[in-house]
Fold these 2 entries.
Entry 1:
Amino acid sequence: ADPIKASIDPATQQMIARAQELGIDTVFDRAEAMKPCAIGATGICCKNCSMGPCRLPLPKGGIVGEDTRKGLCGATPNTIAARNFIRMIAGGASAHSDHGRSVAEVFMSAARKETDAYQIKDTQKLLAVAEALDVATTVEVDGETKARDMDEIALETAEKALNEWGKSEGELLYLKRAPKPRYELWKKMGVLPRNIDREIVEIMHRTHMGVDQDYRNLIKQGTRAALADGWGGSMLATDLQDIVFGTPSPIQSEANLGIMKEDHVNIIVHGHEPVLSEIVVAVAQSPEMLDYAKKKGAKGIQLGGICCTANEILQRHGIPTAATFLQQELAIITGACDAMVVDIQCIFQNLANVAKCFHTKLITTHPIAKMEQDNVIHIEFDEHHALDDAKKIVKMAIDNFENRKTEVMIPRHKAAQVAGFGVESIEYHLGGSFRGTFYTLNDNIINGRIRGVAGVVGCNNARTRHNEGHITVVKELIKNDVLVLTTGCNAIACAMEGLLTPEAAGVYCGPGLTEVCETVGIPPVLHLGSCVDNSRILLAATEVVKAGGLGNDLSDLPVAGSAPEWMSEKAISIGHYFVASGVYTVFGVGLPVEGAPVFQNYIFNEFEKLYGGMWDLEIDPIKHAHKMIAHIDKKRKALGI
Ligand code: BF8
């Protein structure tokens, strides 16, 4: 691959060239060598039974007259694309929600006081979550209302939370956190999720050969499962992590491969669940381990994160971000990565092959995510002996410092960032002291200084130039006075580009947004965390509705969503719960619905009439941003502002 064509980031370009010099292939090379299947990429390959795969390509020149394409069973392109689409939602929703379940289990052990490693850190958040889960926070004693014992609240909250995955009747309790008209709409549409696991299982059933054959009914189940992700599994993951690890608040740090240090032991944590990385952070910063590292000839221990683990430990501890999704192999190719510790999701299997060329210890830690290569070490992490596991891992990295064999080459590039935003800190910075929560933000939207708010999120994708879509879309939005909320790998890309600093306002923003950012001292792009933390965007938007003056429902707001470089099934689930929550959502790269025009039209256009939000696809990043701005303007006009 040509390094310049592969990425806009100089550190990445430098490291791709380095990999080539060393004869190591990376995702960028593999993307050139293997082209995607055009039929699969457009959503019209059905491999749900072994009479197929049935491939139904669009005829050259498009459909003329009736669309007669069908699979062996008669499945139409719409049925096939809808089935594939909601199976992606099932994959994504299960990834977020199973992560949430692990956190709920850790929260339960903390509530039961079964572990030394985890405690209840944020009792404020615990009380808020308890309330949302219908857990009493007060008791009546002799006719007097008193605060209920915190341990009791924690225990009951943990039980109620865990119940959300598999309760036998009722509906998800968090749905009522949405604005009332939104909840009522979901009810009317028949899409209120019953429990998290059930909606995912039902997708697998309905998409089995010969079950649901109506694309409208299929996507309805997709909507239910996606809502169970956004307003269920993901939101619970975020909330319970905040309770156990602390709610983030603005914090300074740095981003890009240049955060690694040649004279330090470099430990890279990569994946998604903060359950392990939180403890690794604590252990790596302990005097005992620092002394040990110094004894072994290192100046200290440098921690760095990749993917959403990076976002989690950045938000809560200011640990610098080493890399986006597509740079993961490059972190090892620096020759300075003494250990890479991975848990779940977004981890390349090829890391093991790259690690073989270096001294790097690649450590898997999760029982559901192992690798077949024999140079990979598996240290299974368990919340009941979390500290011992973390010590073992950190010590292994330190012991490995002296084994570096290839010449170290760490790119010098890194950028400063301010991260750690959330509903609470937006309220703090953009709230009003008298008029309640999000008043100042609403006021600035109404007076036009802020034209609207965009959630720009999601992955990198080797099918498009690394970070180019992310950065172009975000810069175009802030130039047009749209405040950006970011998560996931978009947040990392923005950090690497220097967009997560208050100073970026004066450089890249339109006059209105510059004024607001400079007055309150915030960056024009607010980092809200990992991909499960997209739930923070839902709740922030709900606070905006509550603060008044901008309509009664999420679909009334001048907001839009975007994932310019998406690749994962999780992104589809997120996109769909944004859409079903009333948000116009644009994806880049391509969507696996293009081969089924009727289904595509249904979720791109008809959906707006049903949910107020709809999907769109735009590969050109400037046009992509302007479609979002046009939607924001349409909503402003409808509000009369
Ligand atoms: O959950 S943005 S590449 S890291 S999937 Fe993966 Fe995509 Fe990055 Fe986090 Ni989200």
Note: The chain has a mean pLDDT of 96.
Entry 2:
Amino acid sequence: AIKRKTAPDLRARKNGEPIVMLTSYHAHTAALVDRHCDAILVGDSLGNVMHGFETTVPVTLDMMILQGRAVMRGSQAALVVVDMPFGSYEGSKEQAFQSAVRIMKETLCGAVKLEGGARMAETVAFLSERGIPVMGHIGLTPQSINTLGSFRAQGREEENWAPIENDARAIAEAGAFSIVVEAVAEPLARKITQSIAVPTIGIGASAACDGQVLVLEDMLGLSPRAPKFVRRYGNLGPMIEEAIAGYARDVKSRAFPGPEHVYGMKKS
Ligand code: KIV
Ligand code: NA
């Protein structure tokens, strides 16, 4: 069996070769991502991608665990990180521990990720000290959409840098093995990356970060809309639609199934 990458393996990549990470919620895409990426994020973006929710707020722990198990079965080498969904960890460090233990036991993933800066530092320490590797997530934190009001890039005015820098420092010092930095202005992302001891994984936070993550369906061109920071490496939406239209055409004209798709009778 291939040995999976671990949270300490990722932690050791600070100032090394950039960490490559993508999301997956699904066994077959996990197998493809696994061949090229250091880590797979079972992100709560599955609420938008798989379930059609407008935000990640409705995502449940059961949804995350079900898809985390699928990704673990589909992959073998990458570190699998499972997002803690909204409401499963913010109440107390004990609540966070119980939710994280369920994720770790039921999926056998290698780490969890949770959103929030300084306010979550105590929780990050509580989990890390008890055998649960934690990836942080600062800058734009989509689970807070209802208090933020809208999804907007962070730190585009220098007078707003201090709290975000403080968030990065607090989570790193609390023991997170890595931190996702989302939608943060490039100079601030660079400053944070240079000032903390653990790798930053950027999404909309420039190549100055120690690694990158994207939502797989966004970079494949499968999502109807994607943020400015996404580069489309494929155009799967139109490809899939063309295939579906071809199938519909062939069914109606009886061109499908063909003779090669049909079972004849056995000789008796
Ligand atoms: O849920 C997710 O896909 C994420 C990434 C965008 C970092 O948290
Ligand atoms: Na997420």
Note: Residues 236-253 form the longest helix (18 residues).
